[in-house]
Amino acid sequence: MVTTVVDARPVADGLAAASVADRLAACAQVGGQVDSTYRWRGEVETATEWSVQFKTVPDRVSELVDRIRADHPYDVPEILVSRVECDPAYAAWVRENTHV
Amino acid sequence: MVTTVVDARPVADGLAAASVADRLAACAQVGGQVDSTYRWRGEVETATEWSVQFKTVPDRVSELVDRIRADHPYDVPEILVSRVECDPAYAAWVRENTHV
Amino acid sequence: MVTTVVDARPVADGLAAASVADRLAACAQVGGQVDSTYRWRGEVETATEWSVQFKTVPDRVSELVDRIRADHPYDVPEILVSRVECDPAYAAWVRENTHV
Fold it and tell me: Is B97 on the interface with C (CB under 8 A)?
């Protein structure tokens, strides 16, 4: 599972659509608004962001991360990768939809 | 932690309530609406879904997953399992509420 | 990544702000409302809660967890720790903002 956040809903939608269209992810979910607090260049700031959660197979993760980084408007985007388990039928569906 | 998504809020609520009532999970959280993009039978589609996040102990995971799959309306539901750490007091609370 | 839930939005905002101000987390995201079902003292109850997700480095996790527990209004708060991977640039940003 790969997740990112971005401060514009259309960009979040675009990241989700492109990843599925190009078979880098089998599905992508854009969640509701989140309110982020963070430190940037020494100052504590806040921003409204949208989370995007991508489901893919291990051998597509690095291509998906590279694509998100290339399309993301931030200099240093938050792109997190975590391993999850699922049942064989769902794993097969993800594999089928992330390979031609 | 076990998570799923489903395209009907009442079904999400039902999955959450049943898991806690039957001590398969100590708690379950239905999140806000997510907008999903996915490929189904070769076509890229979108749907509105709700996420459900269940907290349980390792020895109840497979029963919980089986129950979610049995109650879920999809042929191939997304049911993801990830391991999280927590402090002993919370772990004891989860164990207490997932065993009779 | 550390996550918690709490039943008051101002408390969620406070947990997020304090963690970043005190460099226990590089960023914290308060998500939308979640509807929780749980068992408390034998009864199944429901509550509206807000999730807070903190991003930090491994060597700051226990201090962050202790701080959340100290500031959290619950007797036994849900504070979950999960390991995620990210790219070196983001990891450096998190490290820089969780150390003086």
Answer: yes
